[in-house]
C-alpha cells in the first residue's frame, strides 16, 4: 500500500488532466474498436503457438478460435508462400508431416529436395503447390500422442484468413506472425510485381490496418508482434513499418539463416545494443536461457537480465504440458513450469501449445487488469502504466 499512496498526488494530477479534457467514459463515436475488451498488457503475454495446437491440428481456423476462447492474448503463426505467391499459415517447409499429401496420387511427382536453412530436405514443398492445390489438402496432428480425431477435417489457411480470425474475435486479440525461411522463400517464389516475400508480408498487414509502434493507440486497437529468425528481414521491414518486431533466437548450435551469425554473436551485449534499434524483444528457445542436462535444469544464463537491461522483452518458446516436454524439476506439473518462468525468471511472454492452461494459471495467480481493483497490480510501475493506458485511450 505504501507504493500506492506515494503515487497518489500524481494519480490525482493525471485524473484532473483527464477529467478536464474528456468525459471519463467511452465515447460512442469511438466505434466498435473501443467497445471490445482490450488486450491485457499488465502480465506476460499468452501467445497461442500455432493456435491451441496442443488440442487441435496446428495453424487451422479451429485451432485459432479455440485459442481465442481459451484466453490467448496473441494468436501465433508461421508465414510461408504457395507457388502462386499467396501467403499461407504453415510451419514446415514441407507438407509431409502435417497434411494428408501422401494420399494424393496426382501429386506424387511433386516430391523434391531443397536446401532449407542449411539442410537438404526431401518432401512435398508448399512452394510447389498453388493455393488451390494446397486448399484441397487436409491438415493433421503432428504428434501421435495428441488428439487425432480432427485429422483430415481442416484446411490450410491463408495469412489474410488468419488476420480475419483475430479481427473478428469478440475481444481484442493480437497476432504474432513469423517471416518464416525468408531466404528459401525468396529463392523459390517470385512475385510478378518484383516485390519480395518481406514486402508481401508487410503489404498484407498494412492492407488490414496494422500500424503503430508498441503500445501506441493504433497498436492497441490491432496488436501485433512480427517475428523472424532472420535479422536481415527485420531490418529490411523496419524501413516499411514501425510495428514491433521480435528477433527469434535458435538453439546454440544453429547459425542465423541469412547472416550466418552464431548464437553467441547475436546474444552478445554488443549485438543486443545494435538490434534494439529494430526490435522490441527477443524470442529465444527456452532451454538456451536455462540449459538442461539429463532433463534437469541447470543454472540460468544471464541473457534475460541482459536483454532487459537493453529494454528488450523476452518471449521464450515453446511451453508444452506433456510429460515428455517437462523437465524433471517441475514434478510433471506444467503450472510449476509457468510459475518458474513467469515469477522466477521474469519473462514477458510465453509461446504455449496450451493456451487454456496458461490462461488458467495466470487468472488464478495474477488477475486481469480490468477485473476488480483488489488484484495484485498495485506496484508503482503497473499503476503508472495503467494510468498512461487510460489517458491514451481518451486522447
Ligand atoms: C544439398 O544438396 C546439394 C546438391 O546435391 C549440394 O550441392 C549441397 O551442398 C547440399 N547442401 C547441404 C547443406 O548439404
Ligand atoms: C517429418 O518430421 C520428422 C521428425 O521431426 C523430421 O525428421 C522429418 O525431416 C520431417 N519430414 C519432412 C519431409 O519434413
Ligand atoms: C532504409 O531506407 C534508407 C533510406 O531510404 C536506406 O538508405 C536503407 O538502405 C534502407 N535499409 C534497408 C535495410 O533497406
Ligand atoms: C558460416 O560460418 C561458419 C563459422 O564461421 C563457417 O564455417 C561457414 O562456412 C559459414 N557458412 C556460410 C554458408 O557462409
Ligand atoms: C533442477 O533440479 C536439479 C536436480 O535436483 C538441481 O540441481 C537444479 O538446481 C534444479 N534447477 C533449477 C533451475 O531449479
UniProtKB/TrEMBL annotation:
<keyword id="KW-0325">Glycoprotein</keyword>
<feature type="domain" description="GP-PDE">
    <location>
        <begin position="44"/>
        <end position="362"/>
    </location>
</feature>
<dbReference type="InterPro" id="IPR030395">
    <property type="entry name" value="GP_PDE_dom"/>
</dbReference>
<dbReference type="InterPro" id="IPR017946">
    <property type="entry name" value="PLC-like_Pdiesterase_TIM-brl"/>
</dbReference>
<comment type="similarity">
    <text>Belongs to the glycerophosphoryl diester phosphodiesterase family.</text>
</comment>
<keyword id="KW-0378">Hydrolase</keyword>
<protein>
    <recommendedName>
        <fullName>glycerophosphodiester phosphodiesterase</fullName>
        <ecNumber>3.1.4.46</ecNumber>
    </recommendedName>
</protein>
<feature type="signal peptide">
    <location>
        <begin position="1"/>
        <end position="21"/>
    </location>
</feature>
<dbReference type="GO" id="GO:0008889">
    <property type="term" value="F:glycerophosphodiester phosphodiesterase activity"/>
</dbReference>
<dbReference type="GO" id="GO:0006071">
    <property type="term" value="P:glycerol metabolic process"/>
</dbReference>
<dbReference type="GO" id="GO:0006629">
    <property type="term" value="P:lipid metabolic process"/>
</dbReference>
<keyword id="KW-0319">Glycerol metabolism</keyword>
<keyword id="KW-0732">Signal</keyword>
<dbReference type="Pfam" id="PF03009">
    <property type="entry name" value="GDPD"/>
</dbReference>
<dbReference type="GO" id="GO:0005773">
    <property type="term" value="C:vacuole"/>
</dbReference>
